[in-house]
Structure formats: C-alpha cells, structure tokens
Amino acid sequence: MLAQTLIRNGLIFLRQVSAAWTFGYDALGQVTGGTKKLADGTAILGHAFGYAFDTIGNRKTTVVNGQSATYTTDTAGLNQYAEHTVPAFLDVLGTVGDGQTEGDMS
Fold first, then answer.
1. Does residue 33 sit within a domain?
2. How many distinct helices (H) and strands (E) make up the chain?
3. The pTM of the whole model exceeds 0.70
4. 42-58 tens-digit pLDDT
5. How far apart are the C-alpha atoms of 59 and 51, rounded to whole Å?
6. Which helix or strand (DSSP H or E) is residue 45 part of?
7. Burial letters 6-16, b for 16+ CB under 10 A, else e
C-alpha cells in the first residue's frame, strides 16, 4: 500500500492508495524491468526500472526512471565487469512540508 498525506486546514490526513509492482522477465528468468502502478494502471513517477543483458546473462544496461547506466565486461573472457558508467544525476523523491522551502532541512 502506498500512503498519501493530505494537509487541509491544519489537519493531517493519511489515505492508503492501492499500488503494486509489475515485473518483466527474460528467457533466463532474469528481471528485465519493473514499474509500480496504482490500481487503475497508472504508473507512479519515480518507480520504474529496466535491465538489458547479453546472451550469457551479464547486465549490459540499467535504466532507472529514464536514466541509463552501462556495464562493460572484460575483454579477457573472465565474465567480469570492467567498467560501469552511470548518469550524473540523483533521483530525489519526497515532499516539502507546510512553511518549508526546498533547501530547508529543519
């Protein structure tokens, strides 16, 4: 269950929102993606990922909320990752409370 907080007239209300993850799998049984959706099928922003693999199951790419990262395996055939490149960003989920600004940590 996903909780939604509503503030009205100084009162705080907590409402449960029905949500569930859906997943995809490849022929090797590896998870290829997932999305958290509301009961009506609407995807919840910030809750999606995907993976792509080579023929022997090494991860080649990861996509989280639309941002891609890549993996490179070694050239010696040791089935090890030689490099992992990630995007230069940070996902932040949350809300700003009444009377606070984005930079306010109090």
1. yes
2. 0, 8
3. no
4. 998 888 999 999 888 88
5. 7
6. strand 43-53
7. eeeeeeeeeee
